[in-house]
Design a protein that fits this description.
It contains two helices and eight strands; from the N terminus they run βαββββαβββ. It is an alpha+beta fold and about 120 residues long.
């Protein structure tokens, strides 16, 4: 069962995902599995289930490391964030390869993500 409104994922975005995979793999012993669709590598630890991913940006977006919060309704959270002085950077509808998600800025300009887990 999903615990909504909790940090449930992290992402490291880079234009050199192979180097990031080597760095984090050798530093922490993380393992990586390719996800379908875009250049996304699911991170697993000795603890089991994926808890994050490395996104290969292809140079199309800024590099970042960000936490994501599991929410019931991405669109509603985006609206609330804007009402509270934050900003929606980008919002995506659910697709076959990804859940509904968004990247947001808090009022201080800090990037974070939200997503609605599948099922």
């Amino acid at each position: 069962m999903t615990a909504y409104n909790t940090v449930a994922w992290f992402e490291i975005a880079t234009d050199d995902p192979d180097a990031a995979e080597r760095f984090y793999g050798e530093t922490f012993g993380w393992k990586f599995n390719a996800d379908t669709g875009m250049d996304y590598r699911l991170i697993t630890t000795d603890g089991g289930a994926p808890s994050g991913g490395i996104l290969g940006t292809g140079g199309t977006m800024p590099k970042h490391a960000v936490f994501s919060v599991a929410v019931e309704d991405v669109a509603a959270v985006c609206k609330t964030v804007e009402q509270l002085g934050g900003r929606v950077v980008v919002q995506y509808a659910a697709s076959e390869s990804a859940p509904a998600n968004a990247y947001l800025l808090d009022p201080a300009g800090n990037l974070f993500g939200v997503f609605t887990p599948r099922g």
